[in-house]
Design a protein that fits this description.
The structure holds 2 protein chains of 2 kinds. Chain A has helices spanning 40-47, 73-77, 95-105, 110-124, 139-151, 169-184, 196-201, and strands at residues 2-11, 14-24, 29-33, 55-60, 63-64, 80-83, 157-161, 188-193, 205-210, 213-214, 218-219. By secondary structure, chain A is α/β, with parallel strands linked by helices. Chain A has a domain at 90-147. In chain A, strand 9 (205-210) and strand 10 form a beta hairpin. Chain A is built from 7 helices and 11 strands. Chain B contains 11 helices and 4 strands, in the order ααβαβααβαβααααα. A 4-stranded antiparallel sheet of chain B has the order 2-3-1-4. The longest helix of chain B has 43 residues, at 157-199. Chain B is elongated, with a radius of gyration of 31 Å. The chains are: A alpha/beta, B alpha+beta. The interface between A and B is medium-sized, with 27 and 20 residues.
Chain lengths: 226, 299
């Protein structure tokens, strides 16, 4: 599903990723761990074509992301759902309208939008808040709405960048459970976090980055922090 | 269809969110384009005047007093056969004197002392409809001048030349002012769009990340620019029409210009439509400039 081959990236001589080679299979749930500045966000940005590697190749569903034309990038992003730490919901639109955005940009029919948005909101448990503005939701609910937006068009990969960074431990556990459910339906999930608590909640593959370098892989669910 | 509704709703939201800026942009654009419109209006009316003068053009072929009957008949025959001649009227020396006396009764005594009638006979030639352009009349007059029995060829050339020169100047001024003020309109609309882009930068970023194409992100801003351009140019036409009617009223009340008000006319509908269309194009151009400067549409 995702393949990185000797990928390197630097910003003004500061190394963000160094000779990274890894593979994430279809339907996997992977935690991408590491402290701030370790290169997690750079890696996620590269997977959605927001950044290009200085060296190496990145494949997502067989497509060489680094060689995509700018006009092809939006079509790659439609296959990838993205969840942000700060939710990035549009304050002037209702929860329904926010979640509908990925379908609108794909020119889905009105009936399709209504059906898929309702399903996504139900899946994350905020269907009853669909007509409210994001500001009236709790932080946990806002993150759920953000996840609904990420999964509404049935992406093959879900990328989450510090999705629990603004949540308390209880909400964090709920959100991680939600990711597990989404993963159980066949979506590849990659969660980038620096929070050791998240690792203890997920008994899955853990990829660790330190200053852009890949560390030996571990298994989540144990108590090892980063 | 929801995406189409979305695009128009976003454009409308942009216009409504920055209401004051929108109104200022429309009014400023309107006054800017009204300046271009003044030149356009002058140009259109002067062209009308030139066309009207050309329609009415008469060439007077004065005949040599010592002209023999044979040469006169030859000349008359030649002129009648000429395809450039639409109408031919002979004015004898006596008729010319009679017309002079009729037109200038108080000056007719000036000719009394001369004994002999000094006014020449002439042919008054109306050019055929297809040969009424200034160039055609000029060429024809030069040719006729060399014919036997012709003393002089005269027509209201000075007037037409002066008017043609004025039209050229107005045309040049209209193009120069039009280009400069159009750029100003593009800048005004562009700045308004830039404010909208700045206000919605987060939304643009989200749209990009969820897979919106460059065109999808840009279209609401193009619509916004087009609406600003159309409203600005339509308002400028309103301002022009108001100014034009006031001018016509004023000029009609001034004794020496009385009658001119019936000769001047407002821009024809086709030009008004084209003017609004140009406004729309300028608006879209403003959006394009801003989107480019804002760096929107990348990936």
């Amino acid at each position: 599903m995702i393949q990185l081959i000797h990928v390197s990236k630097s910003y003004d001589r500061r190394v963000a990723l160094s000779d990274l080679t890894l593979e994430i299979g279809k339907g996997e749930f992977v935690l991408l761990m590491g402290p701030s500045g370790a290169g997690k966000s750079t890696l996620l940005r590269m997977l959605i074509g927001e950044e290009r590697p200085d060296q190496g190749q990145i494949f997502v569903q067989g497509k060489n992301v680094g060689q995509l034309r700018q006009s092809e990038v939006p079509y790659l992003r439609r296959k990838i759902g993205t969840v942000f730490q700060d939710f990035r919901l549009l304050p002037k639109k209702s929860v329904f309208e926010n979640v509908a955005l990925p379908l609108i940009v794909q020119r889905s029919s009105t009936a399709d939008i209504r059906r898929k948005v309702t399903e996504a909101l139900r899946a994350v448990g905020v269907e009853h808040k669909k007509d409210q503005s994001p500001a009236s939701l709790s932080t946990g609910e806002q993150q759920r709405a953000c996840i609904a937006r990420a999964i509404v068009n049935g992406p093959v990969v879900l990328l989450a960048d510090e999705p629990t960074g603004n949540l308390d431990p209880e909400r964090t556990a709920e959100i991680i459970e939600l990711f597990k459910l989404i993963n159980a339906r066949g979506t590849t999930v990659v969660v980038a976090t620096h929070d050791p608590h998240v690792m203890s909640l997920v008994n899955r593959r853990v990829i660790t980055l330190m200053q852009g370098v890949l560390m030996p892989e571990r298994q989540g669910g144990d108590s090892v922090g980063v | 269809m929801r995406w189409l509704v979305y695009l128009f709703r976003e454009a409308w939201a942009n216009l409504r969110t920055n209401r004051t800026t929108t109104v200022v942009a429309i009014v400023t654009t309107a006054f800017t384009l009204a300046c271009v419109g003044i030149f356009l209006l002058s140009y259109v009316n002067l062209r009308h005047a030139a066309d009207w003068l050309q329609e009415d053009i008469k060439v007077i072929v004065y005949l040599d007093d010592r002209l023999s009957q044979d040469v006169f008949q030859d000349l008359e025959g030649t002129l009648k056969a000429d395809r450039m001649v639409g109408g031919l009227l002979y004015i004898s020396k006596e008729q010319a004197l009679g017309e002079f006396r009729a037109q200038f009764p108080s000056d007719s005594h000036l000719l009394e002392g001369l004994g002999e009638n000094p006014l020449p006979a002439s042919f008054v030639v109306t050019p055929a409809p297809n040969y009424r352009s200034l160039d055609a009349v000029n060429r024809w007059a030069e040719r006729v001048k060399t014919m036997a029995g012709v003393a002089k060829v005269d027509y209201n050339q000075e007037w037409i030349d002066a008017l043609a020169g004025l039209i050229r100047y107005i045309e040049l001024a209209a193009i120069s002012v039009g280009v400069i003020l159009s750029m100003a309109a593009v800048t005004i609309i562009g700045n308004t769009i830039r404010l909208a882009l700045f206000a919605r930068r987060e939304e643009i970023e989200i749209l990009r990340l969820i897979g919106a194409t460059r065109a999808f992100i840009r279209i609401p801003y193009f619509i916004e620019g087009a609406v600003l351009g159309v409203c600005g140019s339509a308002l400028s036409l309103g301002i022009l029409k108001l100014g034009f009617e006031l001018f016509r009223q004023q000029i009609g009340s001034v004794g020496r210009f009385r009658g001119i008000e019936t000769l001047v006319s407002f821009l024809p509908l086709s030009i008004c439509v084209a003017f609004v269309a140009v406004g729309m194009v300028l608006g879209v151009a403003g959006s394009m400039v801003s989107l480019r400067r804002f760096g929107e549409g990348r990936g």
